[in-house]
Amino acid sequence: EDKVVQSPLSLVVHEGDTVTLNCSYEVTNFRSLLWYKQEKKAPTFLFMLTSSGIEKKSGRLSSILDKKELFSILNITATQTGDSAIYLCVVEDSNYQLIWGAGTKLIIKP
Amino acid sequence: EAGVAQSPRYKIIEKRQSVAFWCNPISGHATLYWYQQILGQGPKLLIQFQNNGVVDDSQLPKDRFSAERLKGVDSTLKIQPAKLEDSAVYLCASSLGLIQETQYFGPGTRLLVL
Q1: Chain B CB contacts of A9 below 8 Å
Q2: B34 touching chain A per CB within 8 A
Q3: With an 8 Å Cβ cutoff, are A98 and B91 in contact?
Q4: Is the pLDDT reported for residue B98 higher than 70?
Q5: Residue A48 to residues A26, A91, B81, Cα–Cα distance (Å)
């Protein structure tokens, strides 16, 4: 059965710290991996990764995919209180089905 | 624990036809969400239920979309009549409570309107 596992489930750090969120997957027909940030209701899109080893960056956030070891990481540097959210990892298979991770709840303390 | 179930997995229809999607949330979850995700965009909340009552349907195009959760468990989302721009993935999610709870997403239903 296809699955996506995120770790840790929750994380509390201080403002200014750097955090690394993990996402491992077992999906039969991998197509892409996506990261979302969820603060209120609808998740907001962060990154889509399809190729191994190519880092995607957006400001203080970056992500990379390892298709050999079947995982991705999301890095946030110089964290701010506004980074507090649930970060969701989802894998899309070749049939366009979405397999969601349970999310990592990140809390940034001032 | 069983996750959020959705059906069908895919649906292809012609414009002006009707379509319905079904969602069964995680057992015991009071809150149910329907999202529309168009390719390349983040999910857009269509409607949120708390048990069988509607909490938020401000972004639901009510002239053609309807949703119900009659017994406070599973839910259906209907489009009647469908337009080309309705082609998207329709996601269902559920959460235990109402406020800032972790949402658990289903696999989605991919709709193609021709």
Answers
A1: none
A2: no
A3: yes
A4: no
A5: 17, 10, 32
Identify which of A44, A96, A99 has the shortest CB distance to residue B42.
Answer: A44
* Mean pLDDT of all residues belonging to chain A: 92
Q: Which pLDDT belongs to residue B99?
A: 65
Alpha-carbon distances of B87 from A8, A48, B81, rounded to whole Å: 35, 20, 13
**Test mutation, B102, B109, B111, B112, chain A, max A CBs within 10 A:** B102
Q: What is the DSSP letter of B36?
A: E
Percent of chain B with pLDDT over 70: 95
B29 at interface of A, judged by CB pairs closer than 8 A: no
Residue B35's alpha-carbon distances to A72, B105, B109, in angstroms, are: 25, 10, 10
CA atoms within 13 A on the CB side of A19: 26
Whole-number pLDDT of residue B104: 87
